[in-house]
């Protein structure tokens, strides 16, 4: 009996990676839209209020998720349930990247894979911190966690793209059609994410400097786009692990194996 068969037979449960990816990405996506929509429908005046009292028509993410109920509880529940699988996926991606040999620079490649997974872990940790420490609880710490979240998120996406191409095009080889599809989506989502994020920074400062009506609405819309493109980038794991399944054995071991 092969070791893979033994693992499967001793598994307490097993889950296809595509299904797991849909759950992990679906939870924060649902929470985002629920919190924003609920805030607009039932807490519009308070959720869209600005420090300079100009017209604003959309709540920021922080206002939608941190200041009202039931939004706060929905957001915290969804983020809590999605966090642990995200850490497992960070580990899975390290194995994914290091499953290929990058030639004479393989040690550098492996170090890059480790750094990428570390950025993923930091991103998830900062997100959990943002979730449970709102700007109303501790504005300074909330702001710091947001900066850490965005920095680690952007570095993670960039390193993932670089490693994906480096590992899959080593020694003159070419990306398969499925790998090309995943790589293309990663590039587009990263470029959209960083472009909208940089634009949102400009809009945020413009709002604080000039207090123009509707400018904070643009900022909020940019925030939503950054969140959604971040989630979609992580969802490309479904393309990379589409033939894999995650399992947990009775001995506490975790792993992912090809479909049998």
UniProtKB/TrEMBL annotation:
The chain crosses the membrane at residues 21-41, 108-133, 145-167, 188-205, 217-238. It comes from the Eukaryota. GO terms for biological process: GPI anchor biosynthetic process. Residues 23-242 form the CWH43-like N-terminal domain. Keywords: Golgi apparatus, GPI-anchor biosynthesis, Membrane, Transmembrane, Transmembrane helix. It is found in: Golgi apparatus membrane. It is a multi-pass membrane protein. GO terms for cellular component: endoplasmic reticulum membrane; Golgi membrane. Belongs to the PGAP2 family. PANTHER family: FGF RECEPTOR ACTIVATING PROTEIN 1, POST-GPI ATTACHMENT TO PROTEINS FACTOR 2. This is Post-GPI attachment to proteins factor 2-like isoform X1. It comes from Biomphalaria pfeifferi.
């Amino acid at each position: 009996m092969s070791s893979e068969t033994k693992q499967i037979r001793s598994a307490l449960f097993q889950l296809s990676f595509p299904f797991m990816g849909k759950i992990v990405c679906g939870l924060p996506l649902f929470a985002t839209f629920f919190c924003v929509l609920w805030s607009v429908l039932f807490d519009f005046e308070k959720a869209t209020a600005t420090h300079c009292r100009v017209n604003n028509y959309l709540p920021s993410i922080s206002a939608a998720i941190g200041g009202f109920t039931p939004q706060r509880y929905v957001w915290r529940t969804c983020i809590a349930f999605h966090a642990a699988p995200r850490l497992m996926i960070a580990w899975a991606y390290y194995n994914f990247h290091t499953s290929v040999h990058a030639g004479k620079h393989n040690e550098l490649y492996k170090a890059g894979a480790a750094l990428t997974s570390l950025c993923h872990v930091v991103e998830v940790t900062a997100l959990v911190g943002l979730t449970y420490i709102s700007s109303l609880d501790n504005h300074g710490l909330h702001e710091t966690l947001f900066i850490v979240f965005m920095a680690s998120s952007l570095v993670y996406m960039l390193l993932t793209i670089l490693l994906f191409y480096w590992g899959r095009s080593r020694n003159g080889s070419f990306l398969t059609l499925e790998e090309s599809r995943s790589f293309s989506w990663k590039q587009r989502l990263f470029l959209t994410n960083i472009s909208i994020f940089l634009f949102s920074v400009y809009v945020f400062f413009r709002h604080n400097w000039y207090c123009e009506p509707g400018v904070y609405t643009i900022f909020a819309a940019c925030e939503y786009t950054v969140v959604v493109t971040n989630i979609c980038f992580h969802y490309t794991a479904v393309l990379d692990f589409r033939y894999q399944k995650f399992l947990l054995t009775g001995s506490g071991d975790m792993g992912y194996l090809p479909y049998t």
